[in-house]
């Protein structure tokens, strides 16, 4: 990795049901000294430490939507950073979230820790934890929601379709050397397609809905699958958007072996996608060197 490269690390490829080796939803995008974390599912702090970016070193934390598998560790990220301030004085965590449930969660997440916080402030912490919350209105056209101090890196957000969840968004990170899109949770939709036009890397949630249609018919899984991204039309969408590298995460159902992983890739191919496909595993890192995309095993 060089100073000019942009990298994408999967901090979690899991879903609400626990699966060995897969932490909850999370994607880390790095460029130079900038480290942007998207979502904070179960185990995020440990994965960030393993990726070499402990919470104090994050530039900003983004939230895609208010489902527990995407933000159950948000308080852990913020409070671990707070404790790390004893040594690493980088200040409160910047949290970027859509107005509504995600922002409400961020505002309230320290409340249940009030006794712990009072105890720590009484002994070792100079002040209670806080976050620098940046709230935006989710819209159906992309808008810039974060910009680095030097203006070189920007993050746009667009509202996606994860109903019944309201206010779910996808993000597009633009650095001088790469465009990376993180879908969050959504069914395949035109908003993410437009956001992903010409992207170097699209990190997209993936659900094998077409393949499992008969198996789940009439069950609660059929309802759950209806608001996630069916891998076959996902392939068609990524192809028409001209995405160079499609990285599948939030894998439903969670694959247990190489053959089950390959089935995700075949679904996407059958949808017409001709670019590079990676079926995600925790701590996989994709490095984009301008137009050259390399993959580093975990
Ligand atoms: Zn989810
Ligand atoms: Zn969700």
Write up this protein.
- The structure is a single chain.
- This protein is α/β, with parallel strands linked by helices and 298 residues long.
- The chain is 27% helix and 28% strand.
- The chain contains 10 helices and 15 strands.
- It has helices at 44-51, 68-71, 74-84, 101-108, 114-123, 190-195, 213-216, 220-225, 231-241, 258-270, and strands spanning 6-12, 26-31, 34-38, 60-62, 93-98, 131-136, 143-147, 154-159, 169-174, 179-182, 201-207, 245-252, 276-279, 285-289, 292-296.
- The strands form 2 sheets. Strands 6-5-4-3-2-1-14-15 form an 8-stranded mixed beta sheet. The protein has a 7-stranded mixed beta sheet with strand order 7-8-9-10-11-12-13.
- The longest helix is centred in the C-terminal third of the chain and has 13 residues, at 258-270.
- It is globular and about 60 Å long.
- The two termini are 14 Å apart.
- Bound molecules: zinc ion (2 copies).
- The site of one zinc ion has 6 residues, from helix 2.
Can you give keywords for this protein?
binds zinc ion; single chain; 298 residues; 7-stranded mixed β-sheet; alpha/beta; globular; 27% helix; 8-stranded mixed β-sheet; 10 helices
């Amino acid at each position: 990795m060089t100073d000019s490269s942009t990298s994408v690390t999967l901090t979690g490829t899991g879903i609400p049901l626990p699966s060995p080796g897969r932490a909850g939803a999370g994607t880390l995008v790095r460029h130079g000294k900038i480290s942007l974390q998207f979502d904070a599912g179960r185990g995020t702090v440990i994965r960030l430490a393993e990726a070499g970016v402990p919470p104090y070193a994050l530039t900003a934390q983004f939230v895609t939507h208010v489902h527990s598998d995407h933000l159950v560790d948000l308080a852990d990220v913020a409070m671990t950073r707070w404790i790390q301030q004893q040594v690493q004085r980088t200040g409160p965590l910047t949290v970027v979230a859509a107005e509504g449930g995600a922002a409400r969660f961020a505002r309230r997440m320290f409340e249940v820790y009030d006794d712990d916080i009072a105890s720590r402030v009484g002994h070792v912490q100079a002040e209670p934890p806080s976050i620098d919350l940046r709230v935006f209105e989710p819209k159906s056209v992309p808008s810039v929601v974060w910009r680095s101090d030097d203006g070189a890196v920007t993050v746009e957000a667009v509202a996606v379709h994860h109903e019944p969840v309201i206010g779910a968004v996808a993000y597009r990170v633009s650095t001088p050397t790469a465009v990376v899109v993180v879908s969050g949770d959504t069914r395949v939709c035109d908003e993410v397609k437009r956001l992903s036009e010409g992207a170097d890397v699209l990190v997209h949630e993936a659900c094998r809905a077409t393949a499992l249609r008969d198996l789940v018919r009439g069950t609660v899984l059929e309802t759950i699958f209806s608001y996630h991204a069916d891998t076959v039309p996902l392939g068609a969408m990524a192809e028409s958007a001209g995405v160079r590298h499609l990285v599948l995460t939030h894998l439903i159902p969670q694959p247990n072996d190489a053959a089950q992983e390959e089935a995700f890739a075949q679904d996407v191919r059958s949808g017409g996608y001709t670019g590079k496909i990676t079926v995600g595993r925790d701590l996989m890192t994709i490095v984009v060197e301008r137009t050259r995309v390399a993959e580093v095993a975990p």
